[in-house]
Amino acid sequence: MLDQNLVGFLRDWTARWAALPASAGMAGQRLLFENITREKRDPINDAIPSAEHFVPFGAGKIRVRVFGQTHGTRPAMLYFHGGGWVRGSAETTWDITGNFARLCDMVVVSVDYALAPEAVFPLPVHQGLAVLRWMIAECTALGIDPARITTAGDSSGGNIAAAVTLAALDADVPLQAQLMIYPALDADNTRPSYDEFANGPVLLKNTMQAYWDTYCPAQEYLSDPLAAPLLSDQLHRLPPTMLAVAENDVLRDSGTAYADKARAAGADVTVDPGIGLIHGYFLAQTYCPAVTTCLHAMADWLNAQNAQDGIQN
Is 186 one of the annotated active-site residues of the chain? Predict the structure, then answer.
C-alpha cells in the first residue's frame, strides 16, 4: 500500500517529466534530472564541505565529488548514483551523500561514472574499482581509514556498488560493508513485483527493461555477476550488507532475492522493507516522513559498522 504522503511528490514528479519535449533526447533528460534534484536539495547539505577530484583512469580521468571533513581519520563511503545507468551525477545524489557524511561523520566519495549509451558494461564497474584503489592510495590526503570503507549506491548505482564489492573481493581489496538502496541486481523481469508495479510509480517495467538493454547491449552481459550481482556464487564472502528495498517498486523482488540468497550463503544481511515507499524515495524526503525514518535506519546501521574494529570480511 502506498504511503499517502507520497501522493504530492508523485503528482509533481509526473508533471515535471511530462513537460519535457520528446525532442529533448537524452541530453534533455539528463539536464532535467539535474535541475529537479538541485531544486529539491536540503540546504543543510549545502553546508557539508565538498570538493571535486579527478581520478586517473587509463588515458583519462574519473570525476568524483568528496563530501565531509577530510582532516583526521574517518570511515569512508564509495557511492554510486542512480539514474538507470543513463543519467545522474554526483550532484543528483547530493542530499544522500551529504546526509551520510553529516549523520555518520564519514568521508563520502561520489563517483561520476561514465553513462550509457556512450559507455556500457563493464566500464562503470572498472571505474568504480579504480576509484576504490585511489581512495586507499590517497587515504592520508583524504582523511579516511582504509580499513573502514563501505560501498553504496541507489538504483542502478546500487547495482554498480554490488558489482564493485564483488570485483574488490576478487582483487583482494578489503571492504568493511556495503549498502544498497532500491538496487537493480539482475535483469529478471518475471518476478511478481515487475507485474504488480509494471506501470510504476516512478519506474515502469518497460523503462527498466530499456535501461538494461542500454547498459548491457550484448545478451551475454546479463549473465555476468558484475552486471547481475544476484547471480554471483561468491555471496558468502560479502561484508556486512544492508539492503533497502521499496514496497511499491518493480525492483523489490530482485533485492529481496539477493538478500535471501546471501543469507542462505551465510552473509550478514539487514533488510529495510521500505513499507509504503516507492522507487527513488529519497527524492521525496521533504514530502514523506517515512523517508527520513529510512535514512536514519541506514545511518544507525552505518554507525554500528563504523564502530567495529576495521574490516569484517
Answer: no
User: What pTM did the predictor assign?
Assistant: 0.97
Q: Choose the catalytic residue: 155, 156, 193, 254.
A: 155
User: 79: Cβ–Cβ under 8 A, 6 or more apart, which residues?
Assistant: 93, 96, 97, 100, 108, 109, 110, 111, 152, 153, 157, 161
* 306: Cα separation from own chain's centroid: 19
> How does pLDDT run across 2-52, given as a tens digit for each residue?
999 999 999 999 999 999 998 999 999 999 999 999 999 999 999 999 999
Give me the domains of the chain, ranges plus CATH numbers.
4-17+28-306 (3.40.50.1820)
Distance separating alpha carbons of residues 301 and 181, to the nearest angstrom = 13
List the catalytic residue out of 112, 154, 253, 279: 279
Give yes or no: 155 in active site: yes
Cell numbers linked to 67: 563530501
53 is catalytic: no
Pairing of strands 60-67, 107-112: antiparallel
| Catalytic hit among 3, 249, 253, 272 | 249
> Are the CB atoms for 296 and 103 separated by under 8 Å?
yes
